[in-house]
Design goal:
Largest sheet: 6 strands, antiparallel
Radius of gyration: 15 Å
Number of strands: 6
Helix content: 25-40%
Order of helices and strands: EEHHEEHEEH
Length: about 170
């Protein structure tokens, strides 16, 4: 881990109700990693730790899904860009946004899960995230996904937004 900046949020209490929501702008973390396999495990652990600090790990589905999907994006960064990558987490208004940015310029593709031993990462992101997308600019590629942190945002189909816009 090269750089760590994050701000703990107040303990969730009655003010946040049954689904703790960090105030706008308060839920932010950015960590830079070296392009090595152990970085994927470190990124996954950092997601869990930060969600615990923010009071969002109590909903295991959010924490488990965030860990899984960050693991997939971090693995793609290590395998395909071979550059340092940055994990950024933001949480506000019922949404957890996770981003992985690297110096590569490849566009993620959703492949059929099939029977191959690799290539399922973006399939999982597409299946489990509320929305996802990517930004490809001169600095590299940022792939992001969003998860709901309250029952409505992560539950029923009436709340589920789908966006899998390509890089642009």
């Amino acid at each position: 881990m090269l750089q760590l900046s994050g701000f703990p949020l107040p303990d969730p209490g009655p003010r946040y109700g049954a689904n703790p929501q960090p105030p706008l702008g308060a839920g932010y973390l950015s960590v830079e990693y070296e392009p090595c396999p152990i970085a994927v495990r470190e990124a996954r652990a950092e997601v869990r730790r930060q969600l615990e600090i923010w009071g969002l790990a109590e909903r295991d589905d959010v924490a488990d899904t965030a860990e899984l999907l960050v693991s997939e994006l971090a693995t793609n960064a290590v395998l395909h860009s071979e550059s340092r990558f940055t994990l950024t987490l933001t949480a506000a208004h019922g949404v957890l946004r996770c981003e992985v940015a690297d110096a590569g310029h490849g566009q993620p593709r959703v492949l059929d899960a099939g029977t191959s031993e690799s290539g399922r990462g973006m399939f999982l992101v597409d299946a489990l995230a509320l929305r996802w997308g990517c930004l490809d600019d001169r600095a590299g590629t940022t792939v992001w996904f969003e998860l709901g942190t309250c029952a409505c945002a992560s539950g029923g189909s009436s709340c589920r937004m789908r966006s899998s816009a390509g890089c642009g």
